[in-house]
Amino acid sequence: MRKIKLKYYFSYWFYFVSIKAFGMVPFRMLYHFSHGCSYLLRNIIHYRKGVIQQNLRLSFPEKTEKELQTIEKETYLNLTDILLETMKMPSMNQDDLAKRFRFIPNTDLTDAINQGQSIIVASAHFGNWEWGALAAPSIVAPLKAIGFYKPLNNPLVDQQELKSRGRYGLRVTSMFHTTKTFNLNRKQPSAFFLIADQSPSDRKTAIWLDFLHQPTPWLHGPERHSRHYNYPVFLLMVVRVSRGFYEIETHKLADNPANLPQHELTRRYSEALARYIEKYPEQWLWSHRRWKMKPEKKI
For the segment 39-51, what is each residue's pLDDT rounded down to a tens digit? Predict the structure, then answer.
């Protein structure tokens, strides 16, 4: 049995008390608190401020300094909103969720589900993707909903997060077991949910494409699995329409990905994601060190 470090117990109890406390806070008060937290992170702590500013300047070279500062301010508010909404998540029931989500119908997705096809759903760190995980099973029912995630270092918090994300039907499994999970479920119609905008750790397997005016590495997994199984691929975006309220939009990226040229599916995903980011720049996770890996040669 894995021995759990003492520090993990302390952080778990802090996490546990926090989610219980925020679970009792009304949403209106929660967002007042979020304003204070965003000010603290941006102006006092300067949380990843250099990363955010550099990412924005390189991604939007056409914008003025004033426009970039506005996006930066909204980015911090988006970050604290997501953090506090995630802390609120364990106390939300399905009725609460239904009031705060609107699914935009998509006939392509409906047809694929009605045909009993397995599908791949590629999403991103956009809007509140954590709340999106709760809503995902109802969108693809009766398909089995399977989501992949990166395990946390703290096993106690990790188990709590798994329980929270999966309580409405999403089967959550480690991203390190992706191939095994696809193989185990290949005979059962399933929807495989992948967050596809992380930075890859391996330069050799990364797919390099221009994205937001910069050479950008992409995970090879979504394309590799979609081409191998030839499952239809959809983009899913959780878009904030007002404070605490979201719309889920889906778009078909490919019917038969096995027939596409190499890297074409990743290109379609990256271009679709870029359009959303350009339209709602504050809703993406700019604090992520997305461009820390540089290409060995110009792409």
Answer: 999 999 999 999 9
- Domain extent at residue 32: 6-283
d(CA 205, CA 14): 38
Inter-helix orientation angle 6-23/155-165, to 10°: 30
Roughly what angle, to the nearest 10 degrees, separates helices 65-88 and 49-59?
Answer: 120
Total domains in the chain come to: 1
The closest alpha carbon to 90, from 201, 32, 140, 15, belongs to: 15
Could you tell me if 263 and 206 are in contact, meaning their C-beta atoms sit under 8 angstroms apart?
Answer: no
The pLDDT tens digits for 148-197 are 988 888 888 888 888 888 888 999 999 999 999 999 999 999 999 999 99
Would residue 219 count as lying in a domain? yes
Q: Kindly compute the dihedral angle of the four CA atoms of residues 253, 254, 260, 262, in this order, to the nearest 10 degrees.
A: 40
Neighbours of 50 (CB within 10 A): 8
